[in-house]
Input
Amino acid sequence: MFLATGPHTTFSVFGSPYSPAKGLWAFGYQEEEGDKVWDSMPLSTDIAVTHAPPKHHCDTSARGDSDGCEALRRVLWRVRPKLAVCGHRHEGRGVERVLWNLDTSSEATTALEEATETWVDPGEGNKKISRVDLTMKGGKMIANADHIIGQTCVVNAAITAASYGRPGRMRLNKPIVVDLELPVWEEK
Output
């Protein structure tokens, strides 16, 4: 959408329906195919929208273990988008701010992250939307500027609260709305 007047911005979105094959679902891939699936994510990506979550980030399974994709985690470390939105693992619903390890030799290790901050919904228990404010005004701005891109906000926005409950007893999560700081330019 382009507005004729007022401030403007541009950003790059990468989207993919793929997730690790764990059943007879469409767009499944075997673990050894993960690098091939995710390597097409451009370095210029500001927002990544994927079905699968990255390994260790908002990826809790019904069994309580980490069930995300390791290849996606490595690609997010390399690309470092401001925002990575996923679903797929219903029990993993939530938000994490990931501070990436900027040491480029670390890709071969498990230390891709310096730290992870888990978001707690201040309105948990109410029926209002869940709002994540990543703007300067909100005090939690993503620190990605001037090619020193060190953070990604991972959002598992699964709307169904639990995987495959009994029919008629499906619990739903509130929607998660993210306010994200983007560069703004005025048309002259």
About this structure: The chain has a mean pLDDT of 83. The chain is about 10% helix and 30% strand. The first helix runs from residue 34 to 38.
